[in-house]
Structure prediction request, 127 residues.
Amino acid sequence: MAAFRINHLSILVADLRRSADFYEKVLRLPEIECKVGKPTIRWFGIGDSQSIHLIEGDFGATFVTMSTHLCIAVTDLDEAIAHIGSTGTVYGNLAREPGKVHMRADGIRSVYLQDPDGYWIEVSDDY
Prediction:
């Protein structure tokens, strides 16, 4: 049987530079070579060979909700939270209480924040 794994996630964004700054500076994801060579797409590495592709385009029909989110696990959640806070980015728990850490039912701590286009991102302890 074929084995599956996530290779990349593509996200439609309204302003490529603004979103790229967020993923690079707030989440500290490294920008990697965009092998399609298009000026409206930038790639960021995440994990061992996965990536996030930011694609600039018409964002008008995009619907975002907290239930549809990306979760990024980090090895030091406290340090990540301190860094996110230092950038002025608002984060909070699942109830959207600013500055609070969420304790998931499985015992994993996490925080939620939004990128410049309103996409929800959960940052959690690595388990």
In short: Strands lie at 8-13, 31-32, 41-46, 50-56, 69-74, 91-92, 102-103, 109-114, 120-125. The radius of gyration is 15 Å. The chain has two helices and nine strands.
